[in-house]
Amino acid sequence: MKLIGRKNSSNVQKVLWCCAELGIEYEHQDAGREFGVVDTDEFLKINPNRRVPVLIDGDFILWESNAIVRMLSAKYGMGKLFPRDLQTQANAGRWMDWQLATLGPDFTAMFHGLVRDKRENRQWDAINKSIIATQANLQILDHYLAEQEFLAGKDLTMGDIPIGIYVYRWYEFDKIDRKPLPNLERWYAKLIERPAFRECVMVGLG
Ligand SMILES: N[C@@H](CCC(=O)N[C@@H](CS)C(=O)NCC(=O)O)C(=O)O
Fold this sequence. Notes:
The chain has 206 residues and is an alpha+beta fold. The chain has 8 helices and 4 strands, in the order βαβαββαααααα. It has helices at residues 10-22, 41-46, 65-76, 86-116, 124-145, 160-172, 182-192, 195-200; strands at 2-4, 27-29, 54-57, 60-63. Bound molecules: glutathione. The site of glutathione has 12 residues, from helix 1 and helix 3.
């Protein structure tokens, strides 16, 4: 099995973390941004979006990070990252979809503004809107985490993975006004205890 994508990409990190949690072995190839590759004709054939990550498993090619995490969790982590119970499974899947549809898009302007843009080019209106929207989204997580250890229940599941990547980044920004979120902070402290999370996700704001 081969995973293609630079290790500082949030979407690639989802897959790296999932593989590390489950002890999955794979070949890795850097691609994207500073590594290029995504602009080649060869890459276009495996992902017409020219994005990473891409997983190649024999003759099966899969792109979209959450789809990859879902497949690897089902194949190698049944009853662990991929819950057997249908409701717990749907709950975990819901958080993965919510990351793609809500948390991620609301986060983008802040991340690009504070990490990628030069100081003089920062669009503060967009950044501040993004901070407010993200704080509200994290409040939703905090509410759900009041009742349970992890997002889909008492154990870590695939549902925590895409969200954990963003929460790490949120707590890494300096100079933003973060309101206290005690349940989210407790959950995040649990993630930090995991060697796989520290190794794959806590690597700076790439
Ligand atoms: N929805 C896709 C988004 C993939 C995506 O936007 N990947 C970014 C990295 S986080 C990318 O490939 N950017 C171009 C590059 O790195 O060259 C997924 O979840 O896999």
